[in-house]
Amino acid sequence: xxxxxxxxxxLSALGAALLLALQPAAPARxxxxxxxxxxxxxxxxxxxxxxxxxxxxxxPSLERFAQRGMTFTxxxxxxxxxxxxxxxxxTGLRPRTTGVLDNEVYYRRRLPDAVTLPQIFLVNGYFxxxxxxxxxxxQIWRERDTWRDRSFxxxxxxxxxxxxxxxxxxxFKNDGWLAARGDDADQxxxxxxxxxxxxxxxxxxxxxxxxxxxxxxxxxxxxxRADFRRYKLPSFPSLWDPQPGADVPAExxxxxxxxxxxxxxxxxDRRELMRGYHAAATFADRQLGVLLEAxxxxxxxxxxxxxxxxxxxxxxxxxGWWGKSTLYEESLRVPLMVHxxxxxxxxxxxxxxxxxxxLYPTLADLAGIEVPFELEGRSLRPLLADxxxxxxxxFSQEKRGDRVARSVRDDRFRYSEWGPGASQAELYDLxxxxxxxxxxxxDPAYAEIRARLARLLDDS
Length: 460
Hints:
Layout: H1 13-22, E1 39-46, H2 60-66, E2 70-72, E3 75-76, H3 82-91, H4 95-98, H5 107-110, H6 117-122, E4 127-132, E5 149-151, E6 162-166, E7 176-180, H7 188-203, E8 208-217, E9 221-224, H8 225-229, H9 256-263, H10 267-297, E10 304-310, E11 315-316, E12 322-323, H11 329-332, E13 333-334, E14 336-339, E15 349-350, E16 354-355, H12 359-366, H13 381-385, E17 394-400, E18 403-409, E19 413-417, E20 425-429, H14 447-459
Parallel strand pairs: 1-8, 1-10, 2-15, 3-16, 4-5, 4-8, 7-9
Antiparallel strand pairs: 2-14, 3-13, 6-7, 10-14, 11-12, 17-18, 18-19, 19-20
Helix pairs in contact: 2-10, 7-10
């Protein structure tokens, strides 16, 4: 199948049917039914942070997978919100190009001709399947031209019952937790893991691109009761960080109503939220384990590229904030691990800053697929071979009202601009100040560093 260079293609229902009819059979190795090109399993979490927390989250599946792949310790979302981040990741384009800056806009309204990551695999002979939250919310049902199989498992009614509450009575949206009845299969993510395993079993002998989107640990923090029992309330910190001081732009702070609500939380309220997030993250991690066990049993590691990632990070009280939507490390930094067949450096780590917009070109590169149109990320394949090699800075943004703030992260510093003027910037030395408490933007000793990073933003 040939795509015309310099064009972007949207696969209409008729176009998809024609393309599928024209596709050649996937090449096979001599004497083998295994596809020559690798399969792809893309596993996406929702709101799973990468920045360590004081009370460790039990994530044995992530720890196990880290021994199989390379861990990108400093991977960053283009924008810390579900729809902008996922749209950017799955189109290979930055939010400024997609025009998707919030959770309300369906990306096809802005990009009717885009060829998404799963579509480029579809037109190259792959079976494509989407399970759960891959694109934002219910967009999987709109993507008829993308998936050969698409599903959004919902769990059972039993999984919606149990002990829990909304700690602000709904005044703050990310305030609910539920220690649910039933087991993993009664939760949407448990059902999604089971569905993904069924697909792996069905298509193991043909080239596949399967994306599995787990909804947790996104609020409400719902998980089986056993996951809540792992964490005792008194083990969580008694206080959250104070809000940043007067040396940061006003847009950095939560809005006044949110500030009042969060400041009014009791010690128990805060600990319940922390326990809820931890329980939901551990539950989601166990669903990853289900997929890893299937890869073992079906002997798919040697033919499958596996990527584990989150759409963005999450604050757990840092800077007086709960949730996402900031330009701090807690909100932008995500877990990212990549396994490729026959990779030499399995179990290694790289601290080079990378971006989620890099995933599209990386997966196409590892599969030997030529993308005949422009993407805005770059393949991470060189880092898989040499994790210490020089690399590029990572760029992110965040929206406040009509204003879009920009941020850049190099190997040591993060610099953010919230608007014109000297008082609208942040600069943090993440080597000496990993918690980003000392804004150096107006420090004359760092003027040259600030100017260099500002030029990077202007040239990005």
